[in-house]
From TrEMBL:
Keywords: Coiled coil, Membrane, Transmembrane, Transmembrane helix. It comes from Pundamilia nyererei. This is Transmembrane channel-like protein. GO terms for biological process: detection of mechanical stimulus involved in sensory perception of sound; vestibular reflex. Residues 129-142 have a biased composition (Acidic residues). One of its GO terms (molecular function) is mechanosensitive monoatomic ion channel activity. Residues 1-151 are annotated as: Disordered. Belongs to the TMC family. Residues 1-15, 34-43, 59-112 have a biased composition (Basic and acidic residues).
Length: 861
């Protein structure tokens, strides 16, 4: 009895397994029946083929083709049955997947119908076939063909929806939280689906037009992508700057971005001066040796080609298109009637106006970009989980990206440390006051040293420069270059007392070096003004002597023979006055050349040789040279930035008297980019405290705007107040340089225009206009300040709302967690109770069965 009970219980339990086995048996029976039917059909067809003797080969081929078709149909049916069973088991799926599967099934069904029609036509046709391979190729091609004429409007609409869904999936695939392998597989399948079925969405000419539009859209998108890559590749030194930024941080990269921007500005200035001043004078002006201002004096011809003379831009370099004094004062030159004096004046004014416009525009654009601000919430989480670019396929790019992420983490850690720093405020204030006092002492000492050297050089000039050594001749330039090289190092040492944030410390350092360079530059300008006054006094004497020489020459020729032709004197023998404009241009060119040479020598000695010594002597030295003294040098951002700014200031100041200065500066910046990039990557190490540069370079631009304004003041003063030289330059013979404007208005424009211009240039109208501009600027500044404050308030409110939402979410999460724990506890208790009841029932059943079994045993006995 007990054994029968357990056997019945076991028969009832595995019902599901029996059901599945029965389903498998049924499917096997169906397959066997289908195979028997196919074998019967094949036998019948073979018999028919044997009866038809003339068409035996064709019948065999048709039989083979029919076999393959039936096998494919059976496989498709089995796949469809499995898919239907899977759908019944899994239930409903996503909307997009249904549409895509529906589209695929529609396409498959229509392809099958097309194949059936084609096969029927092929069976009824009487033309002989060439080979079995051709039939197989046609069948393979027919598999991929989907004729839109065979699809109903509803099916076309479904297919279109499936294609659109695949397109949306391709666009949003990058943001899916899937593994990369799944993304690539899905992308490949979606692209194949779209390319295969996208052309079946129209009929006739409309289908062809739609396919043409799709093709042209793809080509246009590819062209745009390639063009964007081409534009990125055309940006000068972009990859170099990115590599430097990845290893040294954004503060060092900001210097090279600023250098590239300055290179672009100087290219425009060089194009203006070279195309509108130097080339017209060289091609259409009078040639060398035709007049005194274009000829080397007889006393200087012997040494005009010496290297020392050419290095100081004397000799043949002085009497060339490189300097102001070479240009002729003819109103028009060449067969084009080119207005040389007018062009010279307008190019000088236009370069300054263009520089103002570009600097102010760049500052405004940077202000707009920096006004957006960054959200520093979850900064480290964002950097950790979203910094890597998974589309990188180059090893070098991957290394740069890794270094960039590491540097950004260092910058963020430093920012976080500075935000939570707490120091002794009284000690910090005392040290900052002491540092500023030491800096003021350095500035005063450097200004006095330059003034002393300039006064000494004036004495040397009165005695004759050829009687002095090379150092005494170039003492002013060398002292200014050495001060610009060593004073920033001293300021850097002093700035360690102040304990500022690295970004604020950089701005203070830039301001101090700016004050140093500005004091040095204006001391140099004051010395030049004294030298200009001396040249003007000498010019008066020379002018009187020239008039006396001309009178004596004329009188001597007339007394000897009144009918003799006029005496022709070689231009090299004609006496000439000192051209103070050329002297000013030469001084600026020498200063720029000496500054450039000092910069390059500093790079080679201070960075390269230092790195070589530390690298190769570290193995045999008493202490660790890399960790201790002298160690590898760091890149001096402040000194290099200020060097660029003041070099550009000298270009703006001296380009009116030396048109070659923009060309020299372009060469200097081009060489500096490659040399400094090499020095940074090979000889320098990243700073110990890597900090993030500000979102814009407006601090650099502000200093550049100040130096632009201060550098144009001396040039404007000389143009407006000092009369030009009487025998050199395009403005010789005029009282002031700007008289060329009045001359042009009077001779080339109608009288009413000159009157309007004179009224417009009246100080009574200019001063109110300037006042109105100042008021407008003040109004716009105040409104922008109010907008900025409102933006800050909105940011604070958004941050408070964000924190409140965080608290609410945290409370909701805690509540949900508690509910889950309570539900888990109740479920565990219920499970324990159920298990206990089941065990009690099992024990009760076993005890009942054992009692009944014992009773039966006893009754039998």
């Amino acid at each position: 009895m007990v054994e029968k009970f357990f056997q019945d219980h076991e028969r009832k339990m595995p019902r599901d397994s029996l059901i599945t086995s029965e389903n498998d048996k049924r499917s096997k029976r169906k397959r066997a029946k289908s195979k028997q039917e196919t074998s019967r059909r094949e036998n019948n067809e073979e018999e028919e083929a044997q009866l038809t003797g003339g068409k035996g080969t064709k019948a065999r081929k048709d039989i083979r083709n029919e076999k393959t078709r039936r096998m494919e149909k059976e496989e498709v049916r089995e796949v469809d049955e499995n898919i239907d069973e899977g759908k019944k088991k899994q239930g409903s799926t996503k909307k997009g997947e249904k549409k895509e599967d529906g589209g695929k099934q529609l396409v498959k069904e229509k392809a099958r119908d097309i194949k059936k029609k084609k096969h029927k036509k092929a069976e009824t046709s009487s033309e002989p076939e060439t080979s079995e391979e051709d039939d197989d190729e046609e069948e393979d091609n027919d598999k991929d063909v989907v004729r839109p004429e065979c699809l109903s409007p509803e099916e076309l609409e479904k297919l279109k929806e499936a294609v659109d869904e695949r397109k949306k999936l391709i666009q949003s695939l990058r943001g899916k939280p899937w593994p990369m392998k799944k993304k690539l597989v899905t992308l490949r399948e979606s692209q194949e689906f779209v390319e295969k079925y996208e052309g079946a969405l129209g009929k006739g000419k409309g289908r062809k037009l739609y396919a043409y539009k799709v093709l042209m859209t793809k080509k246009w998108m590819k062209f745009q992508r390639d063009f964007e890559n081409f534009k990125t590749a055309c940006i000068p030194w972009e990859m170099k700057i990115k590599e430097i930024e990845s290893h040294f941080g954004s503060s060092v990269a900001s210097y090279f971005i600023f250098l590239r921007w300055m290179y672009g500005i100087n290219m425009i200035l060089f194009g203006l001066t070279f195309g509108l001043v130097m080339v017209p004078e060289a091609l259409m002006g009078r040639p060398y040796g035709s007049m005194p201002r274009k000829t080397v004096p007889r006393a200087e011809e012997a040494s005009a080609m010496d290297f020392a003379v050419l290095w100081d831009f004397g000799g043949y370099a002085q009497y060339s298109v490189l300097f102001y004094g070479y240009y002729n004062n003819q109103r028009t030159v060449g067969w084009l009637k080119f207005r040389m004096p007018l062009s010279y004046f307008l190019v000088g004014v236009g370069t300054v106006a263009y520089s103002y416009m570009v600097v102010i525009r760049t500052m405004a654009r940077n202000a707009n970009e920096s006004g957006v601000g960054d959200d520093n919430s979850f900064n480290f989480s964002w950097k950790m989980f979203t910094s890597w670019d998974y589309l990188i396929g180059n090893a070098e790019t991957a290394d740069n990206k890794f270094a960039s992420i590491t540097t950004s983490f260092k910058e963020a850690i430093l920012e976080e440390q500075e935000n939570h720093k707490d120091d002794n405020i009284h000690l910090t204030r005392f040290l900052r006051v002491l540092a500023n006092f030491l800096v003021l002492c350095c500035l005063a000492g450097s200004g006095y040293l330059i003034y002393f050297v300039v006064r000494r050089s004036q004495k040397f000039a009165l005695d004759g420069l050829e009687n002095h050594t090379w150092w005494e001749r170039n003492e002013v330039n060398m002292v200014m270059s050495l001060l610009g090289m060593f004073c920033p190092m001293l300021f850097d040492v002093i700035s360690t007392l102040e304990n500022y944030h690295p970004r604020v410390a950089l701005q203070w350092q830039l301001g101090r070096i700016f004050a140093l360079f500005l004091g040095n530059l204006y001391t140099f300008i004051i010395a030049l003004m004294d030298e200009i006054n001396l040249k003007r006094k000498e010019e008066k004497v020379v002018k009187f002597n020239i008039t006396m020489w001309e009178a004596s020459l004329y009188n001597g020729t007339v007394l000897e023979n009144s009918t003799a032709p006029p005496v022709t004197i070689h231009p090299a023998d004609v006496p000439r006055g000192p051209c103070w404009e050329t002297m000013v241009g030469q001084e600026f060119v020498r200063l720029i050349i000496s500054d450039t040479m000092t910069t390059y020598i500093t790079l080679l000695i201070g960075d390269f040789l230092r790195a070589v010594l530390v690298r190769f002597l570290n193995y045999c030295w008493c202490w660790d040279l890399e960790a201790g003294f002298p160690s590898y040098s760091e890149f001096d951002v402040s000194g290099n930035v200020l060097g660029l700014i003041f070099n550009q200031g000298m270009i703006w100041m001296g380009s009116f008297y030396a048109p070659c200065l923009p060309a020299l500066n372009v060469i200097r910046l081009h060489v500096s980019m490659y040399l400094q990039c090499w020095a940074v990557m090979c000889c320098n190490v990243p700073q110990e405290r890597v900090f993030k540069a500000s979102g814009s370079n407006n601090f650099y631009m502000a200093m550049l705007l100040v130096i632009l304004f201060l550098s144009t003041l001396p040039a404007i003063y000389t143009i407006v107040s000092i009369p030009p030289s009487f025998d050199c330059g395009p403005f010789s013979g005029k009282n002031r340089m700007f008289d060329v404007i009045h001359e042009t208005l009077e001779s080339d424009f109608p009288p009413w225009f000159s009157k309007v211009f004179s009224y417009a240039s009246n100080p009574g109208l200019v001063l109110p206009f300037i006042l109105l501009m100042v008021l407008a600027i003040y109004y716009l500044q105040s409104t922008s300040k109010s907008y900025r404050e409102a933006n800050v308030e909105l940011k604070k409110k958004l941050q408070m709302q964000n924190e409140e939402n965080k608290r609410k979410n945290k409370r909701a999460a805690l509540k949900a967690q508690m509910d889950l724990e309570e539900a888990r506890k109740t479920a565990q208790e219920q499970q324990r109770n159920n298990n206990a009841s089941v065990q009690d029932q099992e024990v009760y059943c076993v005890s009942e069965l054992s009692d009944s079994w014992m009773k039966m045993r006893l009754s039998r006995k």
